[in-house]
Amino acid sequence: MFEEKRVPDRQVRATQTDTTVRVYRSCPPAVADAALEEQRGGAGPVTPSFRLAAYDSENGRKPGHERILAIDLTREGFEQALQGHVEWVPERDLDHTPLDFQAVRIVGELAEEWITGITDVTSVMRDIAGLLATDQLHLAVKLVPHEPPYELG
To answer: What is the pTM assigned to this prediction?
Structure first.
């Protein structure tokens, strides 16, 4: 009999390397500037899901969430962050439609020693939003970071 292979109800998906995992934080411009200059993560929720970050920030248009930072964490730091306060919320499509599985949002402060780098990805998120606004989904999806399932240790 045919069995449908489906996504688990809860799944951590993330841009990752052998040593790092990327999470996203949306924040006001002044906070983003300071985080980039000091390479410090600060407090506030983060998610490894680019699409969820786009939804939470309304593609960088929500007041207080105009900038989106990509924060690369050590794998060990990411796993420690997952042991803290987490929320499971519906994963989102590019048009912010809820999907049938949940993504993780990590609430709290990231330890400085976990952070390997911080970059501003606001322009990418806004480029995607612009392409979607002009019905160019085929181009927008090419800009979305690849986020394979993260195997929890």
So the answer is: 0.92
